[in-house]
Design a protein that fits this description.
42% helix, Rossmann fold, 314 residues, 9 strands, alpha/beta, 2 domains
Length: 314
Amino acid sequence: MAFVKPDKKKEGTKFLFYGYAGSGKTPTGLSFPNIALVDSDSGTNFYDLDNVVVNSSTLSFKELNDDLDELEMDDELFESIETFTVDSLTRFHNNMIHAMNKIAEKRAVKNSRDAEGEGLSFKEYGKMKTYYGEFFARMLNFAKQGKHLVFIAEQKDQNENSGGEIKKIGVMPDGQKKIEHDFDVVVRTFNDENGKPKGLVEKDRTGTYKIGETVDKPNYQLWKPAMDKALKGKQRKKEEIKSLKDVVKDEIEVLDDGESLKEELRKAADAVIKSGKTDELKANLEGAVGTIKYKTLTELEDIKKALEAVKSIK
């Protein structure tokens, strides 16, 4: 990939609405056009679903990814979707914590420790962060194809430890830490003294509102002009957008100094030798990298060439 001149791309807008129960989050999420709804809270039955094209009530990221696979395979249906609404992200986060706690309990039992007192390790928290990151990266690819993202979350207290005393300093979305950084617009929903739904704008890259502004009844129409502007640009094709797994694979090849590829090369070469094709192996390696001593290769490109040469032997 090289630097190129700026070329405006069509891109969906990413929203996070969070607040306490009954503050109007779900109606806000349902106000957007042509929705693929992920209704993990099963809380939309009493609302107007005219904007919903398809619906999934899954409670796990794994099942959701399967549902998204199926949706992407139907090109006509996928093209008809303008918005992906997830209601709520908190439910997925909590379910993931429950699953990790079960894993921790099993670990405790295996090591003869008290299961109830077993906490999550840094590694397990890291796994949850990675799992969510992979899911959001997939959703981000949808945004790059011009789909809007609307995530709903519950709110929880934001606390800090001050001299050994836990103090509440505000509220925050109940989900992975710092998820607000992933979105273009972040709004905290609440009801005023008359019970009217309001929204406090905490972030707005679209420039529609200033941070700290309060809006009445947050909904799609308030941001529609900015969203339409963001959709004016070149349409990316699916194959043009690199997935997170592909990016990570490329980075691993560099960061581990080719160790994974070296091991793959060794195993492939051993298999060829066992098949009795040693002469062909030597010829292919000599032609590809100028030596038959494949175990001494250090340059990543040479290792790749050698591996390709070995794999070409049938």
